[in-house]
Amino acid sequence: MKDNKKQIIVYTSGTFDMFHSNHLKMINYSRGLGDVLIVGVSTDELVSSYKAPPIVPFEERLTIIEGLKAPDIVIPQRSLDHKEAVQNLNIDIFVVGDDWTGKYDYLREYGVQVFYFPYGAGTSSTTLKKKIYESYAEIKKRIDNHDNPDIIEEN
Length: 155
What we know:
Helix content: 25-40%
Shape: elongated
């Protein structure tokens, strides 16, 4: 006898630049909410439309997400408007980081449950980029501000 229970389709998405543990936690959390997990990876063009471009190119970010156990399907995300994706992919649950709180409440009008995943105080790609830049700037300052050993001063 065939089970006619509808599968619950969950969608989560992100830039997933400089992949870190909070990305993995959100994807694994999303996996636990349903039967099929679709993960959207934002294209470089999309990300660049609202913040600094990603460090890791789109194809590499996509490949990293495809290599994880949790996702059933990994797709490019080309828009922040998810109405079409919700309708075309029959999404039941939408998960996004809590830095987007309120932004996707409109999806509830389409019968979609929206969850804002709490990142907490852990790692973020923005924080990682800032730390790398600051560390680089400090090293560069030390390198640029030293005596040149090849110059002999005559008294």
